[in-house]
């Protein structure tokens, strides 16, 4: 049973960006004892897709920009972040708690209470970054419009990266089920690049329907895309519920997760697998750009070390009166690009522009000797004493060589014959 009323979020009029409209409503399930439980829900108004989990990192210097003044202690950094998160989400950091160490940061802070876990903040170490992890409950209770406000914050942040985001779509009346997902997987509707990801069934209900709920996994949790199709209502205790959730977990790694996913959830959900395009009211699909991620990461890495290597020298040159163009001319290499940033590695057009004569099938009349001459490989042929028609060895050379070889074979044969055998 679903109450489809409730608040509806419209586009932020102060922003030029457009965000998918979100509607808030309640879904009711039985607790197994005859009582109805109200489950607050939200979803994209057009396509039904919503963010159910997000983890992101940014450089701690971002908080210096936010505060507008120097920060020294961890407490000061977390104070500024807590205030900013409350502005974005409607809630901030509750307290510092014991770090589990699984994220490799020095300290951890709680979002939410001890009883209800909204998420976590990790700080200290890890190349001076901050990790914010907003879990399902935190996404659900956050103030309407938080996705757009978070995107705007991350747009202005330093070294921003979404490390994980889960997009979900609910089917409250059993329009899609784990059984259907299994069948669709077998028929190739989860294939990507002509490859079929691994799958797994979880739960005793697959063998014996006991109302405990079925779960179907596609892929692995560490893959760039991992799918969970599970009976959400039965997971919450209602053995008769038809409520199914289709959830895609996107992980940073082989793909770069764009910030645009925060305001266009349906497009990226739709573009993840062929099956997603079969669902109702899906928008134009968006795909993740692998090459852009690699290029950005490599450039960021090279830029960081270049700044460490010559940054102070640049400051000195500015102080000495050099202008920008003189500094660039003085420090740039004569030719070439850093390893990993060669233009042709990221764009075919760059390869074409860099080829002197095009591909081999486009140069049928080219003279290989001319190419080699440019490298000085066959320059000796330009000598006046070189006769192109004259052989290095006489014509009788091959005949004599063959005679000696046959003589050698005959000698070896007679030495190894066992005459007693005949």
Task: Please characterize this protein's 3D structure.
This protein is flat. With 422 residues, it is of the alpha+beta class. The model is unreliable at 4-15, 344-348, 358-362, 377-382 and 417-422 (pLDDT under 50). The chain starts with a strand and ends in a 6-residue tail after the last helix. Strand 12 (215-218) and strand 13 (225-230) form a beta hairpin. The protein contains 12 helices and 14 strands. The chain has 2 domains: 45-288, no CATH class; 293-360, no CATH class. The protein has a 10-stranded antiparallel sheet with strand order 6-7-8-9-5-10-14-13-12-11. Strands 1, 2, 3 and 4 form a 4-stranded antiparallel sheet that branches. It has helices at 61-67, 74-89, 136-141, 146-155, 178-186, 232-235, 265-270, 290-319, 324-331, 348-354, 368-374, 396-416, and strands at 2-3, 8-9, 22-30, 36-44, 50-59, 93-97, 107-112, 117-123, 129-134, 161-171, 199-202, 215-218, 225-230, 244-251.
